[in-house]
Amino acid sequence: MLSHGLLPGGVIGEDLSFFALPSVAGTQPTPMTGNTGVMWALTDRPEVRAFMDFLASPEFGRRWAGLAGASIFISPNLRFDLSAYTETDREDVDLSVALATAVRQAIEAGSWRLDASDYMPLEFAFFDSTGPGPLWQGMLDWVDRERPVEEIFAELDRVWAEIAAREQEAASSSSRDQPPGHSHLADSVKPRISRPKSPPGQGKLR
């Protein structure tokens, strides 16, 4: 599993590689998750439409695919030519092609999903040079069998509740600071942190 370019020492493709976790049901397509960029236009003009058409074309990203150190780029466009990943002298060409192929197969099978952590508060799901946040640390501890899953879920629930409380308090304080009669956005929208209802018998974050 590769995450945000945070890799230990070694040569990608020789010392390091990846594998896809199989589906829960062996007869189902192998699922894949990832993050993605979003594009939108703020004005409707011919040149804007032309640029948006280019972003949606199989040509967009071709140069990125061949840049050294840009192996994190994987095009979601099913018309994208996979040979673009080989037009480079990078050492991790085979890995890039394998990742791109796995992503394409997942998209075609309808089993590709956005990474849930991208929808979570940064302080809950971060993973950067300072180390893993609560979510990532919990997953690492589970994989390494450092803590039982019940303990991990209990801690994640506690941290999530603390973040939600701070968000609610910040929204309330902002509303109180507004002059009388002022309509604040926080009064009319749901809190940014909300958690889906869990199916019966499942943990809150499962």
Low-pLDDT residue intervals, each spanning 5 or more residues: 1-6, 182-206
Shape: globular
The number of distinct helices, counting runs of at least 4 residues, comes to: 7
Q: Assign a percent range to the helix content.
A: 25-40%
**Biggest sheet overview:** 2 strands, parallel
Global mean pLDDT: 78
User: What structural category arises from helix and sheet content?
Assistant: mainly alpha
Provide tags for this entry:
206 residues, disordered N terminus, disordered C terminus, mainly alpha, globular, two-stranded parallel ribbon, two-stranded antiparallel sheet, single chain, 7 helices
What is shown here, in short?
With 206 residues, the chain is mainly alpha-helical. It has 7 helices and 4 strands. α5 runs antiparallel to α6.
Secondary-structure blueprint:
Elements: E1 32-34, H1 46-55, H2 62-66, H3 93-109, E2 112-114, H4 122-125, E3 127-128, E4 131-132, H5 134-143, H6 149-176, H7 185-188
Parallel strand pairs: 1-2
Antiparallel strand pairs: 3-4
Helix pairs in contact: 5-6
